[in-house]
Structures are given as C-alpha cells and as structure tokens.
Specification:
The structure is a homodimer of 480-residue chains.
Chain A lengths: L3 H8 L4 E5 L2 E4 H15 L8 E5 L4 H12 L3 E4 L6 H10 L4 E4 L11 E4 H5 L17 E7 L7 E6 H15 L6 E4 L6 H14 L1 E4 L5 H9 L5 E4 L1 H10 L12 E4 L6 H9 L3 E8 L4 E6 L10 E5 L4 E5 L7 E6 L6 E2 L3 H6 L1 E2 L2 E10 L5 E6 L4 E3 L2 E3 L1 H8 L5 E11 L3 E10 L7 H11 L8 E4 L22 E2 L2
Parallel strand pairs in A: 1-10, 3-4, 3-5, 4-7, 5-6, 9-10, 9-11, 11-12, 12-13, 25-26
Antiparallel strand pairs in A: 1-2, 7-8, 8-18, 13-14, 14-15, 15-21, 16-17, 17-20, 19-20, 20-21, 22-23, 24-25, 26-27
Chain lengths: 480, 480
C-alpha cells in the first residue's frame, strides 16, 4: 500500500489530523512538520533497522513517531515509567543503537545514542525521502509486554496487523468523515498507537492528552469536538462523576471504547441516560488492540461480557471435558507475527493453529464472550476456581467504592482465599460486615473475600491495567 | 477469513439483512433460507467449480447467489438482457455445465443443465455444509465485460478484491451500524453485487428493487429507511424530479453514490439544498467497483471531477510529453486477478505494473481526477481530440434536456465530428440554433456538435452505461 501518511495527505489535506492543547494541525500541516523531521533524521538513522522512542503523549512525540515510520524503520516503543534495568533489557533485546527521547527523560543507557527532541530539532535538514509504500507484511512496531514471570516479550506488529485492527474497529463502531478520537491513553501502548493508525487510515482527527484531564475532556465532549474516546473503567467513572449536573454530552460524541476490564451497571445506566454508547472491548498487544467488542445496544443486557469478535476475527473457547469455562483462543489478521528473539515462546502459544491468549472465559448461548480473568490470576480455593474479575464486577456496583481489586493470598485451610483491596469514594466508607453481607447476597460463599482492606493506590501498568500480583506489596489497613 | 455470511450471522443475527417488496429478512432469517438452498443444491452442484446465474433483482435470486457462494463455487454472473449468441459464448468460455435461472427466462442452451428457481425449490434437502472460510485469494465471481471490439472478457474477482472494495468505500463514505443501502442497480453487475458484499461485511441492510421504482424509492428515503443509494445520473435526475414539492429527504439518507458518468450543476444544487451528499465515483468491473470518488463537500467546487482515489488505491495519469491529459492507470488490491482464458489480454493491460483502464483523464492542481472518456470514444476532429463526456456535461446543465449523448461520426473535411443525441424533458424542446449558440458559449468551437438530433431512447449496458458506439444505429430525427 502507498505510505499511509502520504496517501492521507493527498486525499484529505485540509481535515483535522491532531489537536494538542491549543494547537491544531491539518494533515497537510502535520505532514509538513513530519517531513521536516524526516529530513533531519534521515542521516542519523540511516544505518538503523529499528529505532526506540520514549515519549509522553505530546505533539513532539506524535510527530517523531510518524517521522521514524516515514523513514521505514521499525519503531520500538518504550514505556517511560519502566526502570533502568527493565529498559536496558528491552534496548538490548531489540538491538537498539539510537533512542529518541523527550528532553525531560533522565536515564542514560550505555552504548546507546540518546537523541533528545531538542537535539533533533537542531539537526540540519538533508535531502531524504519518506518510503513510498508500507508493506503489510513488514514489522511496523515492537511493543514489550510483561507476563507475571520471565522477561518481557517484544511483540512484533506488522502494518497489516494495524490495518486490519483499524478496519475491524470501523466495521464494528462505524465511522464518519469528521470523526475525532480522544487519545488520553499512552501512545507507546497499543491502545494509544492504534488511534494514531486509525487517524491515517480513516482520515480522522486525534485529540491528544498528556494526562487524563477529565474536565478538559468533558468540555470537549460537551462541545461536540470529539466522537470517540478510549478509556479504562476508572477513567469512565471519573468522566461521568465530573460532568456538571444538569448538563449532557453533545450528540457528536457517539462511542466510549472501554478496555482493561468490565464496568458496572450504575456506570452503564448513567452513560445510557446521557446517550453515550459504551463499547466494552477485549484485546491485547499481541492482537494489535481490540479483537472482541460489545455493542452499546447490548451493554446492559450482556453486562460483564466483552461481546463478540470483530468481523475479521475468530475466537474459540477451548474447554476440557464438559467445562463451560476454558482457554480463550484467537485467529486474526491482527495477530502478532512473533515475539522478537523468542520464536519458541511464540510457537508455544499456538494450539492447533489458534493463538492462546492466556485468558480464561466462556460463551453464553448467544455467542457473547465473558472473560473470567488471566489463568495466572485465578485463585484456587478449596478446590473451586475463583476469578478476581467476577468478584470485582459484583462489588463495583456499590456507589461507595471507587475502585476494587481482588487477589488471592495463601491460606492454610483453603490453599488460597480472595482478598479485596478497596479504595472508597472520598468521604464514603462501608464496614467489613456490610461488605461481607453484600458478597453473600451476590456471590457464591467461596467467592466472598476473606478480608477487605483499604488501599490508597493500585499498582497498574502504563496502560492502566491492574497488576494483581503486586497488590500484596501495597501498604493497606484492614477495614473495621 | 471465516465465511462472511456465517460470521455475520454470528455477530449481528437480528439486524436487517435484506428488504424486497413487503418482505424483510434479518441475517438469521436470511441465513436459514440460504442454508436450506445449500442443502438442496449441494448434490447437483457437487462436481462444479463454477456455476452461472441469470436472475433479475429479486429475493429468490439474492438467496441463490449467496447459496452458490456458500458452496464454495465461483459465481459466473450473466446478464439476462444479452442475446443467445452472446450468452452461449460466455457459458462456453467459463466451461459452465449448470445454469441457475429464474422461471421466466426463456432461452435454452445446448449441453447446459438449466435449473430454474422452482426446480431448485423442489429439490430434496441433503446433508451439505457451507464452506468454513473464504480465502481472499480465491476467485469469488466472474463478470463479463464487453469492449467495443472483440469477445467479452471474463473478469475474475477474488474475495480479496470484494473485501478491499467494501473497505475502501467505507473509509471514504463512512458507515454506521443500522445503515441500509438501496440496490436498484443489477445484482449481476459489480454495482449491485458490491452492495451484497458490503451487506455481509458491514452488517448492513440491502433494500432491493427489481426496477428503478422512483416513487417507492423516494418514499423510503423520505421515511428514513435507507442511508445510501447507488445510481447513474439519469436515476438521480428522476428521483429529484419526482420528489413531491415542499418535501425533503430524511436525515438518515446520507449518500448518493453516483456512477456511470458525471452529473450537472443544477442537479448538484438541487441535491445540496435537500441535504444529500452526492458522491461522484469512478470504477469498473476490473476494479470491483469504485476506486475513485468525489466527496459530497467537493461536489460543487470540483464539478465534473470523479474525485480522489479510495484509501487502498493509487491512480496515475500517464501522459505523453507535455500533455495534461493521459491514460488513467491504477494499482489497487481490488484489481482483478485476470481475464478468464485470456492471460495475454490481461498482461497487455499492464504498463510497468500499473493497470491501464483504457480511459483518458487528467489531474487538477489539487489532485482531483477528471475523466475525459474512453480512448475509444475520443473523437479526432481536425487534429483536435474531443471527448464526448465533456460536451455532454456542458449541455446537461440545460433544464430542457433530459439526456444527451455525443458520439463521433465520419466527416470528409474533419475526419470526424461530434453529433449530439438528445432526449428532451416531456413538453420541452430547444432549436438547433439555440443549442448551437449554447455550445459556442460553453465550449471550444470544434467541440460544438455539428448536428443535434432527437432520440427516444439510448443504447445502454445492463448497468446503465451509455453505449456510444451504438448511437448511430438509433432512429432519430434532426432537431429543426
């Protein structure tokens, strides 16, 4: 295919491409700035096959990501919040020699040429052209994902993976010329980068945020300046909570794409009253973003489900014997072509041609998928399999609870028992007895947490996903 | 990819799939009826690689087209209006042994098993399963196209061609869940069949018409029951003319996809006042429908242009020396993989990797494509190249003219001269002198038709495209 940015500029030069703080760029303006960077970076990156980038969500980073892509280099996205040791591993694994980083980034890596944004701007422009085409089979990006054990894996995503991801999403959510998608999730993560890709393929504007500025976002959505936003559940809750009373969103705002776990009925109902469709979704770095999504019209009827596959995707649940729950496995043109330097681990993830996600789930009789959680998160308690997600979803309906996370802790009698880590809404609380009584009413007895504790913060990945295995390391106090 | 119909039924079983006369079928109902036909047709088609179909636009034909596709057979679409001689050639060329046809079709072909719809319905059901997957590289359909000379060519279109066509269109026009597309163009032509394909891929309803029932169509569009319609210019003119005074269309009606030639400014202005976006488009059987389209927002500003390429498509105009006009050539994932039994003709159409459309055109300074006409339609008059399209577009602005077609006729002095064939709006007319004066005002003198004649009808292909080379064979009288 023709270079997506160049094609987009030819097709719709005057449409909004990106908005950041007070600044707006059309595709034509965006491309002018990107090609200027291409001419600056051509020489220093000439010998590189892969280039690493560390950037917060800002306009400079946005332009540089595109510039590296224009030069035909594979972009290795690094997470700014990782430790020196973690990043040193990834830099070495990807054989990186040049790291592009924002000026405020302080860590230094031996043997790596670290180019700051300022240094790049100061480079002279030299004749250098963008690549003419994007080959769908070429590796466009590498993103590292951590399992609970072992080294992180460099997930190689091709242009084809990103293309089909954008198409699958459009076929499900719909799209209209003039759409704008709010990107307040990290660009270095597939949730954010997939919005950049959609922008080029759809001709869609991106409204970029460097943090989840809930008031600015609500204002934009009330003014009709955006059609779609990607969020994790806590962001959505905060948006709805911060919306001024007796006001509503603009009808241009069609869709909340919700990842990172299920939301609760009160939030769904609130959103429904506001006319906003919440599309629950399920995906991972290995599948270049969402592969399963629940339409807004089904949100209430199928509470807790992540929905149905996107059009180009197939999902199966591989169960043992008569079990209802089994391993969630996927076939998709968005599926990664491999883990960098770890073909064995990639091959090991396949089961008869299906890629095993590592998640456990089940289909209802209408073919809607429910994710019960990572196999690794499962709590084996007295012979019963308990999934934290299910317990969290039940408790999320309590208005006093801002966030809840459940993890297993070792127990002499049962092997393991679930423990609930709770952050209350400011000024609110519930007693241990009330929480237990609620659980007894909503859940099987072995799923009711053995203990309820309060925490002030939750360990999350850069993309906002809960890291349950780190919960026990948090400081907490037992709820009276 | 998973079989598109089966995937669609799994994803959105309860959405409208097709509406014909008073009948509506959801995807679930559609599939039940299609799979019933699969079980009836499995045995009689077991040994066939390709199956031919002759059908008007009706529900039985719609279901049978899908059933043959479900069985993994290549569908050879035949045009019901062709002569026995023409069809016999195509049946033989495609090595057809079984022809599925509507009950009213009367021609008989030797050596061909002709299965009528009634005969198929009377067949017993036998265990037979639809194919599990559609391979994007497999030939899904063959459609014959006629050049002005030689035998018709069987254009082989793969599932990938159709998929990318649907995607390219969606990325340009946008799409929303709940869209309905009116198919009043023939299903056996790419303009109609591409709507069937979009239905499966988008999860979109099709409102099927067996003829261009302008009042029923206007009613549907006024009631908000459809979002899109495919038309040729004369259909659009008729729609707007028949719209009751002081009424308008429903806002659900977003797009007129216009093929088969340019429209005129008064029609554009009328549509614009009604809030309907007219998307002029350009494509051919060889590119599995539109590859270039003009957004509604540009329709007036770029009158006469067919627009810009769809996102997956590249277009170039290959000019000689300093010429502005040249040969229109295309690269596209929708491009046919070949002409059946005529690899030489297919290869001959390529110019350095680009497929030559046989059309002449030019780009303006903003990259909008203008088609001047088929190279074969070009009139070489006194050393000047004259394109009928341009003359027709100019005269189409006159409200007294319902339809105009221009073709070259031999002339002793100039080699050839343009002659205009005109059908006036009922009750209206213009004199030869007025028509000539208008031309002098709008066109270079050598483009002004040497003669204006009236005709009652125009020779058109089944898809409504004008057949200029047959114009001289029409009975006509010279306008006084």
């Amino acid at each position: 295919m023709k270079n997506w940015l160049l094609q987009r500029v030819d097709l719709t030069p005057n449409r909004l491409a990106v908005r950041f703080n007070a600044q707006e760029l059309t595709f034509k303006e965006l491309n002018q700035r990107v090609q200027k960077l291409v001419r600056k970076l051509g020489a220093p990156l000439a010998a590189e096959q892969r280039v690493a980038i560390i950037t917060p969500n800002n306009l400079d980073g946005y332009l540089l990501i595109l510039a590296v892509q224009q030069l035909g280099k594979t972009i290795v996205f690094l997470n700014r919040r990782l430790s020196q040791r973690e990043l040193a591993y990834q830099l070495q694994d990807a054989a990186i020699r040049v790291l592009i980083q924002d000026d405020d980034y302080e860590l230094r890596f031996t043997g790596i040429s670290q180019l700051t944004f300022s240094a790049i701007k100061a480079l002279p422009e030299q004749a250098c052209h963008a690549v003419a085409t994007f080959d769908l089979d070429d590796v466009a990006t590498i993103m590292y994902t951590s399992g609970t054990t072992g080294n992180p894996k460099g997930v190689m995503q091709t242009f084809g993976n990103h293309f089909y991801s954008a198409i699958g999403s459009a076929l499900n959510l719909g799209m209209l010329p003039g759409d704008v998608w709010i990107a307040a999730v990290p660009l270095f993560h597939i949730s954010g980068f997939s919005i950049m890709t959609k922008s080029l393929i759809y001709g869609m504007g991106v409204s970029l945020y460097d943090h989840f500025d809930v008031d600015a976002i609500n204002t934009e959505l009330q003014n009709g300046q955006a059609s779609t936003i990607s969020v994790v559940p806590v962001m959505l809750k905060n948006m709805l909570a911060a919306l001024p009373a007796n006001t509503t969103y603009h009808p241009n705002f069609r869709t909340v794409l919700l990842g990172g776990g299920p939301t609760d009925m009160p939030t769904l109902e609130r959103a429904s009253k506001l006319g906003v469709a919440i599309v629950q979704s399920y995906g991972m770095t290995e599948t270049a973003s969402q592969v399963v999504a629940l339409a807004g019209e089904d949100a209430a009827r199928k509470l807790g489900s992540v929905g149905k596959p996107l059009f180009p995707v197939e999902i199966r649940v591989k169960t043992a014997a008569d079990a209802k729950t089994g391993r969630v496995q996927v076939k998709s043109p968005t599926l990664t072509v491999g883990y960098l330097n770890n073909e064995a681990k990639y091959q090991a993830a396949f089961d008869d041609g299906w890629f095993d996600t590592g998640d456990m789930g089940w289909f209802d009789e209408e073919g809607y998928l429910y994710i019960q959680g990572r196999e690794g998160d499962m709590i084996s308690s007295g012979g019963e399999n308990v999934f934290p997600d299910e317990i969290e979803s039940a408790y999320a309906a309590l208005p006093e609870i801002e966030t809840i996370a459940v993890a297993g802790v070792p127990d002499e009698k049962w092997g393991a028992v679930p423990v609930a880590y709770i952050k209350f809404v400011p000024g609110q609380s519930l007693t241990q007895a009330t929480l237990r009584a609620f659980g007894r009413q909503e859940l099987a007895h072995f799923k009711v947490p053995a203990k309820f504790v309060t925490v002030t913060d939750f360990p999350r990945t850069a993309s906002g996903k809960l890291q349950r295995h780190l919960l026990a390391e948090q400081s907490f106090e037992i709820i009276p």
